[in-house]
Structure formats: C-alpha cells, structure tokens
Amino acid sequence: MSFADAAQVRSAGTSVPAPREQSAAVQDAVTGLAEVERATQALYEAVAELDQAALRGPSLLPGWSRAHVVTHLARNADGLVNLLTWAKTGVEHPMYPSAADREADIEEGAGRLPQLLRADLDAACQRFATAARELPPTAWEAEVAHPRNGPFLAHRVPWLRLCEVWFHLVDLDRGTGFDDLPEHLVEGFVDTAVGQYADRADVPDARIDVTLPDGRQRSWALTAASESPVVGGSAADVLGWLTGRHSGARLSGTAPTLPRWL
C-alpha cells in the first residue's frame, strides 16, 4: 500500500460529528474540516511522489527546499492542535513556543529521509484530525489567538489549515498552481490573503479588481485610501502576487511592491 493509499484509509471519517442542531460556528467548522480532508489527500498524493532529490530541490519559497515546506505543514498542523487544545480546555496554548523555536523545528525536520518526512506529516495530520473530531461543539466558539493576527474564534481554525495546505501545495512546484485551487474556495482565499495586509503601515495603496473562476468580478482594497491605483487580473494571478509568489507583472495596471508575505 502506498503512502497516499495508507493515509487515505486512516483519514476516513475524521470529520467532526454533527449535532442535531448545529450552531453557525459548528457548521463553519464541519464544512471547513471536510475541505481539509480533501486538501490533505491532495497533499499526501503530491508528497508521495517526491523522492530524495525532489525533496532537497528548491520550493517556490526563497531559501526553502520542498522538505522545508513538508516539515512546515507538519508543524503547522501541530500548532493548530495547540489552538484546538486551548479552545477545549480554556487554558492558553500558543501555536508555537516562539518564532525561533518554530524555525528551528522546520530546519531540523527538513533534513530527514523521505520516509521519515512522510511519516511525520501523516502523524501530524492525524493529530489535527483527532483533535478536531474530539472538540466539543461549544468549543468551536471559544476565542484563541494567532501569533501574528491576534484573537479569533476557533471555528476558523479549519480554514487556516485549508489555506496552509493549498498554498503550500503550490509551493511544492509539482504541477499544482493557483489556477488549480478548488474554484468554490478561491474567493475566500483572496479575501484571506488581502486580510493579511490589514492594519499594516507598510502596505501600499491599491484597489484590486479580480476575475473569479465563475466569471464574477469583485474588488478589494488594500488600504482605506479613497484614491488608489487599480490593478486587476484573474484570481490565480492576484493570489500569486498577494502571497509573494510573483511580482505582479501578470496583472493589469502597475502592481505596487508589497511587503514580505508571512
């Protein structure tokens, strides 16, 4: 049985059990976790194809190999388990002890052999699925905190994981691009990417006109300025620019230089 096949068997049925009357928070969490399961299968399939040479090769993230990306995804799953533990117990459990510890864990893990990298990723994904499955429905409404973005409600944790998995699948540079992301999720991804720049003093003025996969047009503003230069393009190209994967040369208008992505 392949790594992807084994992971698929183990991940079956990990969604949060739905109570008879779901709150909006529980509905959001259940929907998000179903999407996380599908994204995780795509991740497993991509990682299963990476041999030693491919894992040591560069990802789309400067300074990171594909092994760094895989390790980061494992540690991100564990960090989000900490937030679910916080929501369940009411006792503060930050995602990571510190930024330095996070970076050190990624560097250490990236040097592992392929089979150990895959086992680490699988175990971390299973820990996340178990923590989500065992979370009491009321805990999805508990407040936790992201190390960069501050407080939010726990029912958004699955969405955070979903963004991480899909964006970093692109970073593996193995055939998945931003135009391959599930179409029904793309508008939310753009909204999340724009939101990462909120309240930052180093963000340039810009209005972004986006063509979504279903043909709809939607605009976002990076700042509250009344007169902002306009850039536009497909959702895939806008996502690539907003997340620092390319300079914005593919967009119409003159795309300003954005500050460093997360």
Short description:
This protein has 262 residues and is mainly alpha-helical. The chain is 50% helix and 9% strand.
Description:
It contains nine helices and five strands. Helix 2 (24-48) runs antiparallel to helix 6. It has 262 residues and is mainly α. The longest helix is centred in the N-terminal third of the chain and has 25 residues, at 24-48.
Taken together, the total number of domains comes to 2
Question: Main sheet?
Answer: 3 strands, mixed
Order of helices and strands: HHHHHHEEHHEEEH
Distance between the termini: 37 Å
Q: Write down the overall mean pLDDT.
A: 90
Point out poorly predicted stretches.
1-15
CATH level-1 class of the largest domain? Mainly Alpha
Please render the helix and strand layout as text.
Elements: H1 3-11, H2 24-48, H3 52-56, H4 66-89, H5 99-110, H6 114-133, E1 143-146, E2 150-153, H7 157-171, H8 183-195, E3 207-211, E4 217-221, E5 230-234, H9 235-242
Parallel strand pairs: 3-5
Antiparallel strand pairs: 1-2, 3-4
Looking at this protein, list some descriptive labels.
Four Helix Bundle (Hemerythrin (Met), subunit A); disordered N terminus; three-stranded mixed beta sheet; single chain; 262 residues; Nonspecific Lipid-transfer Protein, Chain A; mainly alpha; 9 helices
